[in-house]
Amino acid sequence: MELDSIECVPPLDLTDEDGIHRHLHHFPSVSKPHTTTTTTNNNTNTVASAFHTTSVHELLECPVCTNSMHPPIHQCHNGHTLCSTCKTRVHNRCPTCRQELGDIRCLALEKVAESLELPCKYMSLGCPEIFPYYSKLKHENLCNFRPYNCPYAGSECAIVGDIPFLVTHLRDDHKVDMHSGCTFNHRYVKSNPREVENATWMLTVFHCFGQYFCLHFEAFQLGMAPVYMAFLRFMGDETEARNYSYSLEVGGNGRKLIWEGMPRSVRDSHRKVRDSHDGLIIQRNMALFFSGGDRKELKLRVTGRIWKEQQNLEGGACIPNLCS
């Protein structure tokens, strides 16, 4: 479902462009041994430790999916190992020697894994943390440095990356409108507003306070009732999103609806935000009333602003910092 006309008033341009940085993971290099006996021994131990950790880490890599293995780690009668997920995928046959796997666990390798401490796999993206082997996976699922999914809601886009990369991707690949500033004024026009088929539009990306925000406007069925919904998502983590607030306003014929809230992080999927009804929801009959005329054409004007909450150090209250 597409809009017949989209108008943004006034037109603004996003002037700053961030580069796309690709990071490669490198193991720290080992310095050349010095001539003294003590230093040479220390460096030898360092090299041995580095090789030991690397080789053990390779042993803990599943030969099928190449992911790190966690208990239960299975092995065949010849000692070849693989993870529990892949055991079912290979129909209980060892992918290395094709022998039947049975139910043999490699307890020795599981014990060795307990003694390891490894850096987060997002170290190259800035995460400095080191974790015990079995805690590492849990951290990585929630790591603040993990890549973001593309927030475009109009298709199932599989692109992931950091925020500067995704902003460029949205602009160049999805042709999303980019605007600079913390206020917006949009006019939505649809010639046949009775066609509501769970269609989605991600209309604009806004740049203000040095951050990026995604404004969504869409039509979908809420139960048996067709509705329109507008909401804002913050391109960053939830902890940062809490520093901002936004308002949306729609109206006409002497009536108006106002929504105020905190933008949701793009860590939350578009569907999760939509299904939680966390935004400005307009019933179709109300939308047509706001549109005026013969109620056969949708003409909605949605205005809004974004502001940053600042802590009042004396009183402890939050005061808004409005964007000029």
Automatic annotation (TrEMBL):
Reaction it catalyzes: S-ubiquitinyl-[E2 ubiquitin-conjugating enzyme]-L-cysteine + [acceptor protein]-L-lysine = [E2 ubiquitin-conjugating enzyme]-L-cysteine + N(6)-ubiquitinyl-[acceptor protein]-L-lysine
One of the record's GO cellular component terms: cytoplasm
UniProt key word Transferase: yes
GO molecular function terms listed in the Swiss-Prot or TrEMBL record: ubiquitin protein ligase activity; zinc ion binding
Residue span(s) of domain RING-type: 62-98
EC number of this enzyme: 2.3.2.27
Record's protein name: RING-type E3 ubiquitin transferase
Keywords for the protein's UniProt record, in alphabetical order: Metal-binding, Transferase, Ubl conjugation pathway, Zinc, Zinc-finger
Alphabetized InterPro entries for the sequence: 7-in-absentia-prot_TRAF-dom, E3_ubiquitin-ligase_SINA, Sina-like_RING, TRAF-like, Znf_RING, Znf_RING/FYVE/PHD, Znf_SIAH
